[in-house]
Every structure is written in C-alpha cells, then in structure tokens.
C-alpha cells in the first residue's frame, strides 16, 4: 500500500494551522520559551529594518510576518528558579497585588538571550530597575510578565509600521494557561486577546492537521479555529497607566544601549 508523506513546516507556521490562522489578518501570540506575534498576510512583506520576519505560510498562496523576542515564558521560569518558587505559586502571588503595587513595581528588560524584533541586538541583556527594600517578590514577578508583554508590544508596533494592521490576537503556548497574563496582554496591546481550549498545544495540533491535509481533507474542514475559552478585552484605565510604564521601559533600553556603546 502507498504511504502518504506529509510536509511539515516551521514551529510557528504549524502553530498557526493549529489555531486556525489561515486567512490574511489572522494573528496569534505564542508565549513559549521565546515570544512570537504571528500574522497571516496575502503577500511577501519583508521589513528587515525592524527585524520583522517574513516567510511563506504552510498553505498555498499565503505568507506571514512575525515579530520574535528571544526570551518570553523562559524569563518567568528563570525567575522562579532563582527565587525558589513555582510558576503556579508565583502567579497566585502576583494576582493578589493591588493596582498601586503594580504601578510601583520595578521594571524588567526581558533580554536574557539578547533580542531580535525590533532591536536586532544580540548584546542586549536582562535588567531589573527600580528595586527598593520594600519591593516584593510578587512585584518582581509582575515586572517579568509586564516586561515580556512590553516586548510583545514592541513587536506589534513594528508590524504596524510595516503596514500590517492587527485587530485581535489568539494566545497559544504555555503562557496561555495564565488568565492574568492574557488580561495583561490585552491591556497593553489595546486589543482583544482570545484564548482557546487546548491552546497550549497549538503546534502539535497544527502538525496533525497538516497530516490530515496531506491525506486529502479540505482546508475549510480541517483548519477551523479551536473553541474559544475566553476573550480578554483591554481596560482603558489600565492601558493608560501601562503606556506610561511602557514609555519608561523603552527609555531604559535606549539608556542601556547608549551605555554599552560608549
């Protein structure tokens, strides 16, 4: 009997199949070891000036752009290892912080492995800034989540500057299991963030779907979006506060870059 050999794809393009990102404008955020903001496009749209990636999709006549940060959920794992706690326990501590606690939290630059989009800076390094004797472990943990989310927002702005609008994002990867992080992303990005049942397994589901397509099943029947678990919408007041902190986050990177270059 003949054996069908299914073509594969890059991890994020395959995750796109798993989350049903198969039409121009469909977008998702992947919070794994690295962080990716992926959007489907109808043409090849390179933007190397801001380190935006552009590739063909795994489906015919489609392409995609993506912003990539080199350390995302791995920053949280690193911090938990240093402070002797688990991700679940730390996220529970963070959820108990007041709005004032979060507004006064230290800042974190999540460049533990350098950074790609938009800086293309292999020499960038992670930084905590603004700690005092009163700083709580939960505030430092919050700073990690916020710093990674600010990095995702850097990528969103780079994609927008390349001419690609994004109205809504699905959320996949291990970070998709955290409701707090999903809401924080929505508040920072000022757009709906959608989590799906089984969203943390997007890549594996996408690979299985590619096998179904290779076996002859139609795209429309195979590449449906998974069932929505929850839609997280931005709070305008929190967005305003976070944008003030985002401006400081960007200034910290530029100050560090200046220091390293002189």
From TrEMBL:
PROSITE patterns: FGGY_KINASES_2. GO terms for biological process: carbohydrate metabolic process. The keyword Nucleus does not apply. Keywords: Kinase, Transferase. Gene3D superfamilies: 3.30.420.40. Residues 28-215 form the Carbohydrate kinase FGGY C-terminal domain. GO terms for molecular function: kinase activity; phosphotransferase activity, alcohol group as acceptor. Pfam families: FGGY_C (PF02782). Coiled coil: none annotated. The keyword RNA-binding does not apply. Belongs to the FGGY kinase family. This is Xylulokinase. It comes from Klebsiella pneumoniae.
């Amino acid at each position: 009997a003949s054996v069908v050999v299914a073509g594969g794809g890059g991890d994020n393009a395959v995750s796109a199949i798993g989350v049903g990102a198969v039409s121009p404008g469909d977008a998702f955020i992947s919070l794994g070891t690295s962080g990716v903001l992926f959007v489907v496009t109808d043409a090849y749209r390179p933007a190397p000036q801001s380190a935006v990636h552009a590739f063909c999709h795994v489906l015919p006549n489609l392409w995609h752009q993506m912003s990539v940060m080199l350390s995302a959920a791995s920053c949280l794992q690193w911090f938990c290892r240093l402070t002797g706690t688990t991700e679940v326990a730390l996220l529970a501590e963070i959820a108990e912080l007041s709005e004032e606690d979060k507004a006064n939290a230290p800042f974190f630059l999540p460049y533990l492995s350098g950074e790609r989009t938009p800086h293309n800076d292999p020499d960038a390094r992670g930084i905590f800034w603004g700690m005092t004797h009163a700083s709580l472990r939960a505030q430092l943990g919050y700073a990690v989540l916020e710093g990674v989310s600010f990095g995702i927002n850097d990528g969103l702005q780079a994609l927008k500057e390349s001419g690609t609008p994004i109205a809504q994002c699905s959320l996949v990867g291990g970070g998709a299991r955290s409701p707090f992080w999903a809401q924080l992303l929505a508040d920072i990005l000022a757009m709906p963030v959608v989590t799906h049942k089984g969203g943390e397994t997007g890549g594996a589901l996408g690979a299985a779907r590619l096998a179904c397509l290779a076996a002859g099943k139609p795209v429309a029947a195979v590449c449906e979006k998974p069932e929505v678990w929850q839609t997280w919408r931005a709070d305008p007041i929190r967005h305003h506060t976070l944008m003030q902190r985002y401006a400081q986050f960007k200034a910290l990177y530029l100050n560090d870059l200046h220091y390293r270059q002189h």
